[in-house]
């Protein structure tokens, strides 16, 4: 881990609660680090081929498995160069990214392009300092997705298979030296968030500060909703 900055990734299957957790983590870290905390996501719409990826996910255009994997890798490379790396160059900067390389391994690997092939397209991408994976069962994930009442995108199906592939992807990335912590994401969001914050505390650089009193107040108000 580079001591000057901190790059955190939040991962999990569709319906795991990644976006909600990432947004709450940003709120908490901004209590002590202000605008030094950047929230982003992948695919990144404003980076190269972001529009085409969104169209493919909505089934508006058709891309082959290889084309989609290459599109995600290009989008990530441009996202890193134009957004993430410039922010992380200064000391005390934090990036929280909703999805990153693990999602590519899980969602872009298919019958005609395996996980190692997808990794080879992305192996030069910056390694996160910490990846937090929210583990939820397929039933809970489907329930949460149903509450969203939105049309399913290309990969928001067959979640049991996705869960298995997440374990394969985690094993592959850990073998490449990635720091990955798995968190039980099946419970109430306040409890899941406490586990996420604890994972950050256990793996953070020495300069990163989390303000306990404000964090406690936030948990109590969230639990009351």
Annotation keywords:
about 220 residues, 5 strands, 9 helices, Rossmann fold, single chain, 5-stranded parallel beta sheet, disordered C terminus, about 55% helix, alpha/beta
Summary of the model, kept short:
The chain is of the alpha/beta class. It has nine helices and five strands, in the order E-H-E-H-H-E-H-H-E-H-H-E-H-H.
Notes on the protein architecture:
The protein is α/β, with parallel strands linked by helices and 225 residues long. It has helices at 18-33, 50-57, 65-88, 101-108, 115-122, 138-148, 159-175, 189-203, 212-223, and strands at residues 5-11, 37-41, 93-98, 130-135, 180-184. It has a single domain, classed as Rossmann fold, CATH 3.40.50.300. The protein has a five-stranded parallel beta sheet with strand order 2-3-1-4-5, sandwiched between helices. Helix 8 (189-203) packs antiparallel against helix 9 (212-223). The chain is globular. 33% of the residues are buried. Residues 219-225 have low confidence and may be disordered.
CATH fold-type name: Rossmann fold
Average pLDDT metric: 89
CATH architecture: 3-Layer(aba) Sandwich
Q: Would you tell me the structural class of the helices and strands?
A: alpha/beta
| SSE sequence, one letter per element | EHEHHEHHEHHEHH
Q: So what's the CATH class? A: Alpha Beta
Helix content: 40-55%
Strand order of the largest sheet: 2-3-1-4-5
**Mind telling me the CATH superfamily name?**
P-loop containing nucleotide triphosphate hydrolases
Indicate the overall shape. Answer: globular
User: Unreliable segments (pLDDT under 50, ≥5 consecutive)?
Assistant: 219-225
The profile of the biggest β sheet is:
5 strands, parallel
């Amino acid at each position: 881990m580079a001591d000057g900055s901190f790059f955190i990734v939040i991962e999990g299957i569709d319906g795991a609660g990644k976006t909600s957790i990432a947004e709450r983590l940003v709120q908490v870290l901004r209590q002590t680090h202000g605008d030094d905390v950047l929230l982003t996501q992948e695919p990144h719409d404003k980076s190269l081929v972001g529009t085409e990826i969104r169209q493919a996910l909505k089934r508006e255009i058709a891309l082959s498995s290889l084309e989609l994997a290459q599109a995600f890798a290009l989008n990530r490379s441009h996202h890193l160069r134009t957004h993430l790396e410039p922010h992380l160059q200064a000391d005390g900067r934090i990036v929280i990214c909703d999805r990153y390389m693990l999602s590519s391994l899980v969602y872009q690997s298919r019958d005609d392009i395996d996980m190692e092939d997808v990794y080879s397209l992305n192996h030069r991408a910056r390694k996160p300092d910490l990846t937090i994976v929210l583990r939820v069962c397929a039933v809970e994930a489907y329930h949460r997705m149903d509450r969203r009442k939105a049309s399913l995108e290309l990969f928001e199906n067959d979640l049991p298979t996705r869960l298995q592939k997440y374990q394969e992807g985690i094993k592959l990335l850990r073998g490449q030296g990635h720091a990955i912590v798995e968190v039980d994401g099946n419970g109430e969001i306040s409890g899941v968030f406490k586990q996420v914050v604890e994972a950050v505390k256990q793996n953070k650089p020495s300069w990163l500060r989390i303000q306990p009193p404000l964090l406690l107040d936030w948990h109590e108000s969230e639990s009351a909703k």
